[in-house]
């Protein structure tokens, strides 16, 4: 069974990615939707006890926040997969400003999350960890983090034009 844990500042593309990749297969656990930790805990427990796949679609900026889900999922014998949505804050603010109504978050909220951000690492207990980067054309670049390469996208190792496979 699979538990997917997202990490990324506001407007880094998490919920859009969920819709495109997990909508048909995984329950979405999102504080934006559930509003309270109590509801989140109840839904999380329901998923774990029924062995339902799920995605935690929160910003999850700190290792401590992620550890809650990783620990519970591992105890329930889930495979734990992480996705780190790597974006510049400038680009995130532009995307945020283009959202409508209640989906626009205050810029200071984005900066606050950025300040607390601890990039996820395999050592936290992820079985697999991916980096996701949004492209201007709406596609994504997805890279799996190898134990020895750490967080960064390779700059030049992917071909003469630096191109990478589009997803
Ligand atoms: N690949 C993409 N290319 C261009 N724009 C995108 C892409 N993915 C998402 N967006 C746009 O960026 C904005 C933010 O995306 P999204 O709502 O998925 O972010 P989020 O990480 O879930 O944010 P939050 O943490 O606030 O929920 C949206 O307006 C969305 O339409
Ligand atoms: Mg979202």
Task: Describe the secondary-structure layout.
Elements: E1 2-7, H1 14-21, E2 27-29, H2 31-34, H3 37-50, E3 54-56, H4 63-75, E4 79-85, H5 89-97, H6 107-116, E5 128-134, E6 140-144
Parallel strand pairs: 1-3, 1-4, 2-3, 4-5
Antiparallel strand pairs: 5-6
This protein binds adenosine-5'-triphosphate and magnesium ion.
Adenosine-5'-triphosphate is lined by residues 8, 10-16, 32, 59, 95, 98-99, 105, 134, 138, 140.
What does this structure look like?
By secondary structure, this protein is α/β, with parallel strands linked by helices. It has a single domain (2-144), classed as Rossmann fold (3-Layer(aba) Sandwich). It is 35% helix and 19% strand. It is built from 6 helices and 6 strands; from the N terminus they run βαβααβαβααββ. The chain has a 6-stranded mixed sheet. Helix 5 (89-97) packs antiparallel against helix 6 (107-116). The protein is globular, with a radius of gyration of 16 Å. The two termini are 24 Å apart. Residues 155-167 have low confidence and may be disordered. The structure holds adenosine-5'-triphosphate and magnesium ion. The site of adenosine-5'-triphosphate has 17 residues, from helix 1.
Concise overview:
This protein has 167 residues and is an alpha/beta fold. It is built from six helices and six strands, in the order βαβααβαβααββ. β5 and β6 (140-144) form a beta hairpin.
Shape: globular
The largest sheet is:
6 strands, mixed
Which residue ranges are poorly predicted, with pLDDT under 50 across at least 5 consecutive positions?
Answer: 155-167
What does the radius of gyration come to? 16 Å
Summed up, the domain count is 1
Compounds present? adenosine-5'-triphosphate, magnesium ion
Helix/strand order, N-terminal first: EHEHHEHEHHEE
Question: How many helix segments?
Answer: 6
Mean pLDDT across the residues is 90
Q: Briefly note the structural class of the backbone.
A: alpha/beta
CATH fold name: Rossmann fold
* Order of strands in the sheet with most strands: 2-3-1-4-5-6
Q: Report the count of strand segments.
A: 6
Q: Give the terminus-to-terminus CA distance.
A: 24 Å
For the record, what CATH class applies? Answer: Alpha Beta
The portion of residues forming beta strands comes to 15-25%
- Overall CATH architecture: 3-Layer(aba) Sandwich
Say which CATH homologous superfamily is assigned.
P-loop containing nucleotide triphosphate hydrolases
Give the fraction of residues assigned to helices: 25-40%
């Amino acid at each position: 069974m699979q538990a997917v844990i997202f990490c990324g500042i506001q407007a880094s593309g998490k919920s859009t990615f969920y819709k495109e990749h997990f909508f048909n297969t995984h329950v979405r656990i999102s504080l934006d939707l559930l509003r309270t930790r109590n509801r989140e805990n109840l839904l999380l427990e329901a998923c774990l006890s029924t062995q339902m796949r799920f995605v935690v679609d929160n910003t999850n900026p700190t290792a401590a926040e992620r550890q809650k889900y990783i620990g519970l999922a591992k105890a329930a014998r889930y495979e734990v997969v992480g996705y780190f949505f790597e974006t510049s804050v400038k680009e995130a603010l532009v995307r945020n400003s283009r959202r409508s109504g209640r989906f626009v978050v205050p810029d200071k909220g984005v900066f606050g999350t950025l300040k607390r951000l601890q990039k996820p690492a395999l050592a936290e207990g992820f079985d697999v960890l991916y980096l996701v980067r949004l492209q201007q054309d709406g596609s994504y670049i997805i890279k799996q983090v190898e134990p020895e390469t750490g967080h960064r996208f390779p700059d030049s190792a992917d071909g003469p034009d630096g191109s990478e496979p589009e997803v």
